[in-house]
Amino acid sequence: MRQKRSSMPRCPHCGGSLITMATEDARFGLTVLQRLTLEFIRSRIAECGVSPSYREIRDGIGVKSSSDVARVIAALVDRGHIVKMYGRARSITLVEPAHASAA
Questions:
Q1: pTM for the model
Q2: Which domains, ranges and CATH numbers included, belong to the chain?
Q3: How large is the average pLDDT for residues 18-29?
């Protein structure tokens, strides 16, 4: 039987809750894990200026495997939320929503 997480995922750097879901992400039909990952990436880039590694994302969102992170990152790339240069470390870049650049 799968164990329940005892606490909500927290950013390892600022301690903030990663359940702060942006409303524009919900409109695009992201899963909870995809939203957590995207929010974690946003917070790390805003705080540190570089994208997190897969291990940092794994620890930050509370999954057990880096392959789970790779699967979520691939889904976010497919949906157009991020761009990744494969074969390069820390190469995740956020894609600005079309409605934000038009404002």
A1: 0.68
A2: 23-102 (1.10.10.10)
A3: 52
